[in-house]
Amino acid sequence: MLSLASSLPGFTTSSNPSLLQQHGKGESHHPSAPPCLVCSPADTSQVQALVRLCGEHGVPVVPHGAGTSLEGHLSHLDPRPSISLSLNNLAALASLSVPSRTATAGAGLTRLSLNEQLRGTGLHFSVDPGADASLGGMAACAASGTSAVRYGTMRDAVRAMTVVTAGGEQVNTGSLASKSAAGYDLNALYMGSEGTLGVITELTLNLHPLPSHVSSAVTVFPSLSAASKSVVDMLLLGVPLAKVEILDRSAIRAFNAYAANVPDLREAPTLFLEFHGISEEELAAQVAMAKDACEGHGSSEFEFAAGERERRELWAARHGTYYASVRLRPGAGGVVTDACVPLEHLAEVIEETAADIEREQIVGTVFGHAGDGNFHCILPVREDDPADYLAKIEAFNGRLIERTLAKGGTCSGEHGVGSGKMLYLKQQYNAPTVGVMRAVKKALDPKNIMNPGKIFSWDE
Amino acid sequence: MSRVMVGVKRVVDYAVKVRVASDKKAVDLANVKMSMNPFCEIAVEEAVRLKEAKKASEIIAVSIGPKQAQETLRTALAMGCDRAIHITTDLRTDQELGPKGVAKLLAAVAEKESPDVVIVGKQAIDGDMGCTGSMLAAYMDVPQCTFAAKIDLDAKTVERETDAGTEVVSFPSLPAVFTADLRLNEPRYATLPNIMKAKKKKMDTIAAADLVADLTDGNTVLEVFEPAPRAAGVLVDDVDALVDKLKNEAAVI
C-alpha cells in the first residue's frame, strides 16, 4: 500500500490511531471497528489502482465520505486486514449547467459545501439529511431528508455516476440527459448499495431552482395520529408541501433544550411545515388549503417563521433534533430507528410506537418525515447502561420493525442497512429476494472485498 | 424616500486558496473563481432592505473593473438593485487601483447621481485596506459611519462594532457614507426569477479615465510573497510530555 502511495502523486496514507478510530465509526452507537490504514487517493484513476491492488491481495475496502453513517456501515468487521478508502480528495465541483439544472461533483464533496458553491446561481441541491453527508455516501445509502415529499430522495437526484468496480474498472451509469431508456438502470443498482458493489467517485446531480416565495409554519395537534391524518389530507388536496415534519412531545422538549436561538415551542405533537411558491398569491393559496386540512384534525393556529433567518434557524434546529435527542442523556450514543410505512398506516404505527416508548419508560424522541410515512426514534444509550435497559431497547426495536413490516413498510426508509439492520432485512424480504441481491454481489465482487459483511451475509 | 448608491467589488472568491504569481509582483488570478466581496454583499442586502421597508426609492449599484465586473453588478441587480453603473478600467483592482482612486471615482458618480445614502463594504477581502468608505466620505464632504452593524435612518444613528464592543453614534444629516460590517445583515440568495429579471435592468458604462484624470495610488506594491511555511509539529504521547516540552523547549510556561 505504501509503495503504491509513493508512486501516485497526491495519494496519501495514514495509520494515525485517532484517524483509524474515526474511520471505523459513524455517528451511531455502534462502537468503532477501525481499518488498518486510511488511504486518500487523489482521483478516479488512483481509486482504480488502489481497488485493483486490494483485489490482488484480498484486502477489503470500505469507502469513506463524511463518516455520518447511522447503521455501522463503516465498521471493519472482516477478519482480513482492511483499508478505509477516503473520498476526501475527490471533492471538487467539476461542472455546472444552469439551463440543464445539473452539477457534476466528486463523491467526497458534502451537500452543504455543494450548496455553498451554488450560491448566486439561483439553484440548489435539495436532498437534506440531518448530517452534512458526502454526496457519494448519500448515494450509497439512498439518502433522503426533509425535502423528499416534494423534491424526491437521492434516487431522484442522481442523474449519472462514475463508479469503480471491485475489479478496478471504471463504470459510467446513467446519462447527462434527464431521462434514459438505454440499457439496465445502473444508477439504481449502485444507489443504496452501501459500498458493497463498487466505489462511487463522481456524481451528476439534479438541481432545483431556489424557491422565490417561501413560508414556514408550526402547528400543534391533540395527537400524533391527528397530525399524521392531516398530512394525508393535505397531500390528497394537492398542496405541494415542500416539507412536513412531525415531532412528538419529547422531541419538542429535546428541541427546546438544545436550540438556543429559536423560541421555545409548545410540548405537544407538532408539525413543521414549509411551503414553496412562485408567487405570493400561490403561496397564500397553498397555506390556506393546508390550514383548512389541519384544522379539520384539531390543529392550533399556524405560527409562521417571521423572516428568512428565523426560517433557516427553525429548520437548522429541526436538523439538530438527532443531536438534541442524544443530549437528553449526556455521554450517550444514539440508537436510531428508521421505519417507513405506507402513508395510510403512519397514524397508527407512530401512535403505537410512541405509546410503547412511554409504557416501557425508555428515554427517547419520535420525529420524522411525515409526508413520506418515515419516522425515527432516537434512543440515547450509554456504555454504563444496565443490561436490562439495553434489552428493553432491543425488544422495543424488534416490536417496531414487526409493526412496520406487518403494514408493508420497510425497516429502513433512508439510513440504510449497514451492519446494524441485517437481521431485519431478512425479516423484510424472503430468501429468494435476498438471493437475487446475493447473486448480484457475487457476480460483481467475487472476492468479497467491497465493504464485506454489510446488508446481507455472503453465505446463505 | 432616499436614493441609495452601493459600491460593489469583484474579488477573488473567499474560498479560493490564493497563490502568488511567479514574478512575485501580485497574486495569480488566472482561472481563479471571482465573486462579489462578502462585505459588498452585505451592503447590497442593506440597501435592498431599505427599499423593501419603503425608506429607499432607488438603488444604484456601482463597480469598477474589467468587463467581468458586469457579472458582479448583475448579481447586485438580482439581489434587488434597480440599475447599475460599470466604471471600466484595465488597472488591477486588487492593487494598482487603490482606495484613493476608487473613492475619487465613486465621488464623481455621486456628484452626478446625488444619492442620499451611500453604502460600501467595510473592506475588500483582496486588499483588506478598509479605507475606501472613509476616503469617499471625505471627498464627498459628508459624515461617515463605519463598521455599521445596524443603520437607523429615522433616528439618524448607527451601531458600530469595535474591538472594545458596540457603540452607538449619531450622524447629523444625509447624505452620509456607511460601511457595512459582518453583523449588519445576512445577505439573501438570489433566486432565478430575479437573476433573469436582472439581465434586463439598466447598466451604464463609463471609462474611469473619463470620470477622473489621475488615478495613481499613493502606494506602490514592491513585492508579494507567501508567509514562510510552518515547521512540522511534533506528536507527544501524553500531557506530561506536552508540559515538559512547553516548559523546557518552547519556554512558554
Automatic annotation (TrEMBL), chain A:
SUPFAM superfamilies associated with the record: FAD-binding/transporter-associated domain-like, FAD-linked oxidases, C-terminal domain
The protein's required cofactors: FAD
Subcellular location field: Mitochondrion
Record EC number: 1.1.2.4
Alphabetical list of InterPro entries matching this protein: FAD-bd_oxidored_4_C (IPR004113), FAD-bd_PCMH (IPR016166), FAD-bd_PCMH-like_sf (IPR036318), FAD-bd_PCMH_sub2 (IPR016169), FAD-linked_Oxase-like_C (IPR016164), Oxid_FAD_bind_N (IPR006094), Vanillyl_alc_oxidase_C-sub2 (IPR016171)
Biased composition (Polar residues): 1-21
Record keyword DNA-binding present: no
Alphabetic keyword roster: FAD, Flavoprotein, Mitochondrion, Oxidoreductase, Transit peptide
Domain FAD-binding PCMH-type: 30-210
UniProt xrefs under Gene3D superfamilies: 3.30.465.10, 3.30.70.2740, Vanillyl-alcohol Oxidase, Chain A, domain 4 (1.10.45.10)
Residues covered by region (Disordered): 1-33
Superkingdom of origin: Eukaryota
Listed PROSITE patterns: FAD_PCMH
Major location category of this protein: mitochondrion
Broad class of enzyme this protein falls into: oxidoreductase
Homology family: Belongs to the FAD-binding oxidoreductase/transferase type 4 family.
Name of protein: D-lactate dehydrogenase (cytochrome)
Organism: Tetraparma gracilis
Automatic annotation (TrEMBL), chain B:
Pfam families listed in its UniProt record: ETF (PF01012)
Family matches, as InterPro entries: ETF_a/b_N, ETF_b, ETF_beta_N, Rossmann-like_a/b/a_fold
Compartments, record wording: Mitochondrion matrix
UniProt KW keywords: Electron transport, Mitochondrion, Transport
Every Electron transfer flavoprotein alpha/beta-subunit N-terminal domain range: 24-215
Position of the signal peptide: none
Coiled coil regions, renumbered to chain: none
Segments crossing the lipid bilayer: none
Subunit structure: Heterodimer of an alpha and a beta subunit.
Function of the molecule: The electron transfer flavoprotein serves as a specific electron acceptor for several dehydrogenases, including five acyl-CoA dehydrogenases, glutaryl-CoA and sarcosine dehydrogenase. It transfers the electrons to the main mitochondrial respiratory chain via ETF-ubiquinone oxidoreductase (ETF dehydrogenase).
PANTHER family: ELECTRON TRANSFER FLAVOPROTEIN BETA-SUBUNIT, ELECTRON TRANSFER FLAVOPROTEIN SUBUNIT BETA
Family: Belongs to the ETF beta-subunit/FixA family.
Stated name of the protein: Electron transfer flavoprotein subunit beta
Upper lineage: Eukaryota, Sar, Stramenopiles, Ochrophyta, Bolidophyceae
